Inverse folding.
């Protein structure tokens, strides 16, 4: 692939000291494009949580060339009704005059060969670039309409309006992108239903190559240490999964095998009602600064997928790290991980408890750890993800 000038348009980072999986993926994507020999300029915004200068210094330290716009709030406005895709407030931000002017300025001054937008709701700048004859890539991290439907426990009429706007936005993204790079095979299949002109590719989390590890060493010991990792339990799918473990799975395991397992919960913002359930065999670790050292003491990953879309890092990071893992088969999102070979599948609390009891067998843990590590290396290696990105760029340039 020849050297390209690429304008990357990203949503703003929220808290620089606690980046989520999607934010880490955005930054890894910029680093990857630069490492592949391309010149990258980033157009993004600050956040309401930290001064703009803190964001600017963060990007400078990373070596990024950035056009950083101040964070702005956008209350509900009647003009959003003029275009149905703007019913999704996330897209509305990128259709604002100040942001459109910034896009035009970067197109005129930087003169990119290609524009790469992160998230399907960043379709307005992609459409703006496409209308000027530039190839565009939209990297979708969630099928937003279904994701919002899953994440909202009590849907109101306003939520349904937003869901409709997000659905229209997904159609706009498919039309605005020369290539739409979905994050999972399942999401790619969803876009196939609405894509007419654009090309589709699948692009996993670009942080995963750096998380690949050999199989975790298997210890023949009691108790076994089980971990569940969620960055923040203010996120609906994380707290639902946590309650499933603590309130449903743990009591069954205690009854069947008292004293044989200790459950460790990683992540912040655990509700007090759940923290009150702490016990000798249920430990809330909070934020773990040295994750590598901590995980070296663990035996089993329990990723209690109960809801959500996209590619959840709490599922794929333990696999990449070579842990024997239990999760719902839908959590694989279409990636080629097979039950019994790469992980144990469990759809409810009794199945999850039964799978944990099976994992008292060191030979089964060893087999699953090896399978997870080998399959993750095959799917998420740096060479594989580099090849996918180069294929996406080439397809976009070909139009």
């Amino acid at each position: 692939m020849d050297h390209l000038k690429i304008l990357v348009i990203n949503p703003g980072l929220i808290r620089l000291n606690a980046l989520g999986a999607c934010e880490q993926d955005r930054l890894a994507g910029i680093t990857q494009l630069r490492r592949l020999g391309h010149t990258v300029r980033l157009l993004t915004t600050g956040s309401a949580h930290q001064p703009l200068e803190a964001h600017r210094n963060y990007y400078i330290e990373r070596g990024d060339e950035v056009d950083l716009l101040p964070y702005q709030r956008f209350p509900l406005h009647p003009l959003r009704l003029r275009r149905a895709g703007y019913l999704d407030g996330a897209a509305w931000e990128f259709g604002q005059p100040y942001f459109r002017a910034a896009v035009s300025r970067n197109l005129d001054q930087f003169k990119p060969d290609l524009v790469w937008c992160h998230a399907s709701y960043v379709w307005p700048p992609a459409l703006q670039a496409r209308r000027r004859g530039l190839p565009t890539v939209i990297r979708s991290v969630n099928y937003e309409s279904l994701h919002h439907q899953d994440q909202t426990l009590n849907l109101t009429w306003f939520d349904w309006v937003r869901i409709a706007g997000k659905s229209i936005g997904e159609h706009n993204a498919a039309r605005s992108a020369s290539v739409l790079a979905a994050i999972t095979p399942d999401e790619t299949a969803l876009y196939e239903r609405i894509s007419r002109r654009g090309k589709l590719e699948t692009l996993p989390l670009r942080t995963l190559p750096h998380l690949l590890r050999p199989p975790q060493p298997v210890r023949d010991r009691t108790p076994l240490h089980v971990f569940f990792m969620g960055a923040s339990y203010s996120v609906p799918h994380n707290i639902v999964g946590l309650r499933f473990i603590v309130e449903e799975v743990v009591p069954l395991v205690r009854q069947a095998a008292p004293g044989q397992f200790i459950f460790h919960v990683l992540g912040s913002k655990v509700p007090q009602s759940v923290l009150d359930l702490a016990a000798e065999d249920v430990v809330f670790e909070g934020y773990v600064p040295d994750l590598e050292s901590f995980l070296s003491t663990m035996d089993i990953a329990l990723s209690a997928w109960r809801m959500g879309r996209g590619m959840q890092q709490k599922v794929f990071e333990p696999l990449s790290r070579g842990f024997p893992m239990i999760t719902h088969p839908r959590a694989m999102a279409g990636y080629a991980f097979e039950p019994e070979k790469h992980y144990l599948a469990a759809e409810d609390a009794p199945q999850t408890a039964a799978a944990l009891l099976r994992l008292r067998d060191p030979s089964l843990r060893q087999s699953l750890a090896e399978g997870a590590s080998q399959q993750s290396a095959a799917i998420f290696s740096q060479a594989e993800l580099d090849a996918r990105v180069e294929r996406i760029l080439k397809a976009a340039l070909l139009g």
About this structure: The CA atoms of residues 26 and 118 lie 7 Å apart. The mean pLDDT is 89. The chain has two domains: 5-209+381-398, 213-380. The first helix runs from residue 21 to 35.
